[in-house]
């Protein structure tokens, strides 16, 4: 491991020692953060996978029913039936904080959960449409939960990757480098000390010789 | 904590997204890649919180999807089209796991379950 290019002085040494202390502390904190994020992520991502599987299955069913309804009805009738929705799809977004990652929390507004879903009379439309729309409406809370979890997983995965890189950089680059450099400076200072000592002894000897 | 009231939208092939209109979502039917891209950009600008997008449409605009992935809002969620799922959404989850953990730990688990 290459050492940092520094002057081997006491000033530099104490500066490096401080930096090492910070790096070690940072490394420990970062590692804890990573571990906790990982734990939460794994719980969430399991739920995410299960929920997605369920939603995809049910959504495909509802949509194929819808496609059937489209086949039975004329496109104009269809558009007309759906033109004015009976409910409003509004959601409340809150910001939640998971290990200092900001993730959204979605809640469906009350108007979006009203019983009435159908926006049209039953005379001119096919029953498949009713079924498809009822199925979709039932699925909406799951869809929103899926959106929330999936976004959370996206953001967490990103943050975990970043944190892991930081941990590795500290562990394998910064900390060894600092340690090595500190060692180098200590050795150099000790060497200087010894050189000085021998020089003094030599001088003392020379003076003693001259005085004889 | 500040609560924001926002709307949802659906983007993709007309056959699929029209169904969401009944639920009150804003619906933008698209056919070409450019239309999808424009729709998503417009919805993101208008602060929609959740955008459901069909898998085929999502596959057409990978750069945009990955850009919005790193931001808190909007959440762009792929949904299967009327022809069923082509695993686009699932592969996203697996990619996430691989990114975070290093290996895909879900893969083996699912293999056992099914």
Kindly describe this structure.
The complex is a heterodimer of chains A (212) and B (114). Chain A is mostly helical and 212 residues long. Chain A has a single domain, classed as Helix Hairpins (Orthogonal Bundle). Chain A is 74% helix and 8% strand. Chain A is built from three helices and two strands, in the order ααββα. Chain A has helices spanning 10-72, 75-82, 127-211; strands at 90-98, 101-108. In chain A, β1 and β2 form a beta hairpin. Chain B has 114 residues and is an alpha/beta fold. Chain B contains six helices and four strands; from the N terminus they run βαβαβααβαα. Chain B has helices at 14-21, 33-45, 55-60, 62-69, 88-101, 105-113, and strands at 4-12, 26-29, 50-54, 75-79. Chain B has a four-stranded parallel beta sheet with strand order 2-1-3-4, with helices on both faces. The radius of gyration of chain B is 15 Å and the shape is globular. Chains A and B meet through α1, α2, β1, β2 and α3 of A and β1, α1, β4, α5 and α6 of B.
Distance between the terminal alpha carbons of chain A, to the nearest Å? 53 Å
Quaternary structure state of the chains depicted: heterodimer
Instruction: Provide the CATH top-level class of chain A.
Output: Mainly Alpha
In CATH, what is the homologous superfamily of the largest domain in chain B?
ATPase, V1 complex, subunit F
The helical percent of chain A reads: over 70%
> Which CATH architecture of the largest domain in chain B would you pick?
3-Layer(aba) Sandwich
Question: What's the helix count of chain B?
Answer: 6
Low-pLDDT sequence parts of chain B: 110-114
Strand content of chain A: 5-15%
Order of helices and strands of chain B: EHEHEHHEHH
Give the averaged pLDDT of chain B, no decimals. 81
- Helix percent of chain B reads 40-55%
Largest interface: A-B, 63 and 45 residues
* Strand ordering within the main sheet of chain A: 1-2
């Amino acid at each position: 491991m290459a050492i940092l290019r520094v002057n081997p002085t006491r000033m530099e040494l104490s500066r490096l020692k401080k930096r090492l202390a910070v790096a070690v502390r940072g490394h420990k904190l970062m590692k804890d953060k990573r571990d906790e994020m990982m734990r939460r992520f794994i719980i969430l991502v399991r739920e995410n996978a299960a929920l997605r599987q369920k939603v995809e299955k049910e959504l495909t069913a509802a949509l194929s029913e819808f496609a059937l309804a489209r086949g039975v009805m004329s496109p104009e009738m269809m558009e007309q039936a759906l033109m004015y929705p009976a409910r409003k799809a509004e959601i409340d977004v809150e910001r939640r904080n998971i290990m200092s990652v900001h993730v959204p929390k979605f809640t469906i507004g009350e108007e979006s959960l009203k019983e009435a879903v159908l926006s049209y009379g039953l005379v001119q439309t096919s029953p498949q449409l009713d079924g498809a729309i009822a199925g979709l409406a039932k699925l909406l809370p799951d869809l929103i939960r899926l959106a929330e979890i999936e976004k959370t997983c996206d953001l967490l995965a990103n943050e975990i990757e970043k944190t892991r890189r930081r941990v590795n950089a500290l562990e394998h680059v910064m900390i060894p480098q600092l340690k090595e450099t500190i060692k180098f400076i200590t050795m150099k200072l000790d060497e200087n000390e010894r050189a000085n000592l021998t020089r003094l002894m030599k001088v003392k000897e020379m003076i003693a010789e001259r005085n004889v | 904590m500040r609560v924001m009231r926002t709307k949802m939208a659906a983007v993709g092939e007309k056959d699929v997204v029209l169904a969401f209109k009944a639920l009150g979502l804003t619906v933008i039917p698209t056919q070409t890649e450019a239309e999808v891209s424009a729709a998503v950009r417009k919805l993101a600008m208008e602060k929609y919180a959740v955008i459901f997008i069909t898998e085929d449409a999502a596959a057409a605009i990978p750069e945009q999807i990955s850009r919005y992935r790193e931001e808190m809002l909007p959440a762009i969620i792929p949904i299967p089209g009327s022809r069923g799922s082509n695993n686009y959404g699932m592969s996203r989850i697996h990619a996430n796991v691989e990114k975070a953990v290093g290996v895909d730990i879900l893969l083996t688990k699912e293999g056992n379950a099914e």
